[in-house]
Design a protein that fits this description.
Number of domains: 2
Radius of gyration: 22 Å
Cofactor: pyridoxal 5'-phosphate
CATH superfamily of the largest domain: Type I PLP-dependent aspartate aminotransferase-like (Major domain)
CATH topology of the largest domain: Aspartate Aminotransferase, domain 2
Keywords: Aminotransferase, Pyridoxal phosphate, Transferase
CATH architecture of the largest domain: 3-Layer(aba) Sandwich
Number of helices: 13
Largest sheet: 7 strands, mixed
Strand content: 5-15%
InterPro entries: Aminotrans_3 (IPR005814), Aminotrans_3_PPA_site (IPR049704), PyrdxlP-dep_Trfase (IPR015424), PyrdxlP-dep_Trfase_major (IPR015421), PyrdxlP-dep_Trfase_small (IPR015422)
Shape: globular
Number of strands: 15
Bound molecules: pyridoxal-5'-phosphate
Structural class: alpha/beta
Protein name: Aspartate aminotransferase family protein
CATH class of the largest domain: Alpha Beta
Family: Belongs to the class-III pyridoxal-phosphate-dependent aminotransferase family.
Length: 443
Amino acid sequence: MDRDSAEPTVDGMPGERAQEWADYHHQFSAPSTYVYDFVWDFTEEAIGPFCTDIDGNVLMDFTSHVAAAPLGYNNPKIMEKFDEFDLVDPTKIAGQDFYAAGGWPPEDPELPGPTQLMDRLTDLTSHYDMDTVFLSNSGAEAVENAIKICYAQGGHRAFTFDGAFHGRTLGALSLNRSKVNHRKGYPEIGGVVSVPYPSTQEAYEKQWLTDGPGGNVLADKLDPEQGVIAPEEVAYLIIEPVQGEGGYRVPHDGFVSDLAEIRERFDVNVVADEIQSGLGRTGEMWAVDHLDLDPDVITSAKGLRAGATVANSDMFPKEKARLSSTWGAGKIVDSMQGVFTIDAIHEYDLLDNVAERGRQMRELLEDADLPNAIDVRGRGLMLAVEFDTKERREAVVKAALKRGLLVLGCGYKTLRLLPPLDVTEREIELALDVFQSAVEEVA
Ligand SMILES: Cc1ncc(COP(=O)(O)O)c(C=O)c1O
């Protein structure tokens, strides 16, 4: 498949094989968040945003596996480096208990592994004075470990935001405020309070600013004289610098500077959950880099291919076995892929590409005057279109799929577009033509 000339070619979606495959799969699989009967055939050709499904359809993937494949399919920048690696067994190792080296010396071995992934991550977070990493297997685990290290500092209360999503393990799900099913009937960590996440001037004024002593809903709660929560009992505040599941909402600047002030004034640890928004997706390495707010802990996963909790060494408990995980740092291939991804972002100026292609995509979406679309928002290549109803959004996702474009819902009636970080001008134009005709058909 030639990336420069590939186009979506679809002969009925979902095809017969895809439907049969999905039925077979569901004989064994527990219900999860399956979105559509798209079945990627990894034995067939794929490059960049283009992939082949089990019926031979060629599709454009503008979901990047929900930001978990930031460089798209079979990116040569990753694949040529993988060629140097002869698969070994075990590749999935007990990496928190044993070290693994891809040759010598540790600063620049033949092949990178978990040690180099941690090294790269501390480089990427040194401007926040972070120098230490705990690697795990998933986003939820990265969040679990972030909140554990904050609780270990003292305090049993925490703040999260309306619209938040932080994962599905019991600790992480206690922080979710985007969909009822995430928490319904499950036990939760106590002491978690949610406050609004204003993204517009109107919401900032209405939901966030008050006439209270500190001037906003969060500071009022913490006010030593008139508040209801003792600041020293607060272990952390956790925020997505752009909300993901909650609908690709960008925080209002005033809200962000209030948070920065609250962090200083009440000495509250800020955890930036960068699991969806990090690793270049918004045009900066971390979405929090766009904000005037310094995080104390960063969580990363998805595009990193491993989970990571990053902070200053002072934040981590010193005793043995307070944090651990058999496979935490252990997947050699994942760590290697994480390092290659970070290196490719630097080497090929992908932050600039994200900013430029993000601008292009946003302009095309805005200029298209899409019927029944009520908002276009996001940052970089983390963009979304909100529709007037949930039914309309779902119909557009289906109509786009029928035409060979994969997109995903988020929030209540919003649809997200997240192409690979190295997406080209031609690919954005191609995908947006398909998208526009899907929206028009639905209208
Ligand atoms: C912001 C955010 N935090 C945490 C998670 C959980 O990650 P995982 O599914 O790898 O556990 C996600 C996943 O979508 C996410 O978007």
